[in-house]
Fold this protein.
Amino acid sequence: MKNLILSRRKILQGIGCLAAGTMFSGIRVAFASAPVDERFVFIILRGAMDGLNAIPPYGDPNYQSARNGIALGSADYKPLDNFFGAHNNLSAFADMFKAGEAAAIQAVATPYRERSHFDAQNVLESGGVQPHVINDGWLNRALTLYGSRKDSLGLAVGQTIPLTLQGKVAVGTWAPSAQGLPDDTMLLALDKLYQHDALFHTALAQAVDIHGIADGDLGGVEGMKKIGGGKNLQNKEAMEQTVKAVGKILSDPKGPRIATIEIGGWDTHAQQGTDKGPLANNLAALDTGFGALKDSLGEHWKKTVVLAATEFGRTVAQNGTSGTDHGTASCAFLLGGAVNGGRVIAQWPGLDSGRLYQNRDLAPTTDLRQLAKAVLTDHLHLAQAEVENKVFPDSSDLRPIDGIIRV
Amino acid sequence: MTASQDSFIAVTRFGLGAKQGDFAAVQGDPRSWLEGQLKPEFAQNPALNGLPSTMEAVQHMREDAQMKQQAKRDAAATQDEASKAMFAGKIKDAQQELNQDYIKQVAALTRASVDSPAPFFERLVQFWRNHFTVSITKQQDRILVTAFERDAIRPNVLGNFHEMLRASTRHPAMQIYLDNFHSIGPDSPAGMRQNKGLNENLAREIMELHTLGVNGGYNQKDVTEFAKILTGWTIDAQGQGDGSGFFFASRQHEPGSKMLLGVNYNENGVNEGEEALSAFARSPSTAKFIATKLARHFIADDPPENAVAQLASAFTQNNGDLIPVYRRLIALDEAWQDPLAKVKTPNDLILSLLRATNISGAIEDKKLVGAYRMLNQMPFSASSPAGWSDKASDWIGAEALLQRIDLARFIARAVHTQFDPSDLLENTIGPVASKDTRLAVAHAGSAQEAITLLFSSPEFQRR
């Protein structure tokens, strides 16, 4: 009930300031004094990204033969070092890599070892060891560790909240919408209407908060039509416009600090292509998002870490339909001014058939939680003991990856 | 528990929301009103007569592909820029026509549900079409998805689960959506000639999402073996089959015996797949999985164990016949408690708004379908084969709520001169309306505002 009352007060404060025309500054009184100045964006790549063609291990002697038919040719990637490359469509990422503010992690996976998207995403987002054991998200549990003001720290980009941000702490959602908020009379009436329904009331209060920061920057109704309301982030233009607004929201001194973005379309079972095709297009959209985040965060980029990760990888060999089926390890991306990058982190397991997981998939050698724990402790300044106690249970034997965050 | 609360539950939770006069009609005996809808005649919704059959859709798909290929060839063959543009325009026009057809068909399905005298039956159709998700995210499926509902789902909703599973698996829309039509046995004649092979997408999702459930006791080896069993199951693109749209291409079928869930399947062509589907349909894992989904849909996001057990045992005792399962559901006490336990999905919300206001006939197709797009639940476009979520936490966020309120405002603007807000309240949520909601509607500054608030209220947004 505490959240409800708090949120309710925020709305009413806002409405109380209407006469002076300062509605949003009134609401945002509650946003004062953030407990953390660092920014963190978690990009969820839904559908199982083919990490072997995003960050190709071109130096592995078996890469071409094991991926016969779908391996990238030497003109389809840019070398990152003398072993790994980045798909040509990850050009913004490659530039950041060169500038030392981006890293790739190869052969990484969650602890999940089956091949269901939905269970795997549940593990990726809940932070559990098994699917459907923990009912809330690891990022939400991380927010519980902040004493003050935690209810306005989290933001889900999209109409609804992904599991990773669901939990005890209230978080906002934001998506570009042509309509914006209802008028003030209606808001006041809705506030009363929802006073005994916590689910609806919290959602309304969050909407009031976030729209106060973001609106007015996306070209109104016409602008929204152009980018399709930001619903399809596989579209490069929609990604760019949406992420620019996210950067603005995260830049606001009183705004949220931690955001999630979701992009689907990685489930390339058929005709996945190499330099062109569905995988290449999705990588281009993701890369556009990377670039737009850096641009729009401006001076805050130096305090930012972005983690992009998928639920599992794909088979090493192509399947019967020029695509790939569900696999195990994939790669993850870490970028931002606070990242000590310029390297691909991998205990490379190799692609010769004897080294593959169950004789078909890239074997996992790094646990994704090692990466997430490094972000939570070194970047967001949460105590490791608390992270192991509350955020990632059963992970105390997993060392956070050392030195991945600039100090 | 009052009789009127039962009426609300029958009409809103089991049905698709109240039309004017529904509560009065149901009042006497809500359970009998529901049971009366479990009759095959309701599968023949006359509003659907205009939808293409599966064979018509397959034919259309073939012609569309041929036309586009020809246009591409013609464009490549000419040097003249104007001709090239003409051929490109032809492809674009054809695509637009497909989109318009799809919108027209979705609007027709919507009106069929809204106008149906058997809304419980219609809800069951929507439950099953979501269980067996197909999606226009596969471009060719745009032509096929409504035929899937018409021919694979509707005729089987009151039949046997196994038949619906067969119809779904054999349907071209499913074969395309989950890539099986071009999965080829590596050692089959076609596989040896073309150096092509398996695609295990459909095999996995049938076990995980359509039958056994992810903890249903299978492993990766079973998925691969079942994928081999399903090779050759494809689309009747040349009109060689039995008129259902399905064709078994034996040249693509992986020869030899397969071991699935500990059972050896000797080489037996299409019958291997038939036997496997039959075995899945009989599995207790399937009974439990389907029971859980039904209980989640009709009782609560976290369904009570007793309800799941009851439904599973009805499923098993009746060998997958579905009518006795629905009867057991209607008889469960748990289904008649907390009348607002579930949040309406956008699809539920849109249909209930249209039923409450009776305006679906007056809205043009594009706007009608636009409501789904606005709330992020376009029919046949779920982002994964798991279908749309049936949990409130996946549907209510700040942004989603604003869209819902906006839709309420849009509909209120269209109908506010035709309704008295307090009558409309009684006719839609009367039996459960709270004091807050009654006050908000009574004190609103205008009829339009009152109706916006009514349609935004928790009682209208829940079921």
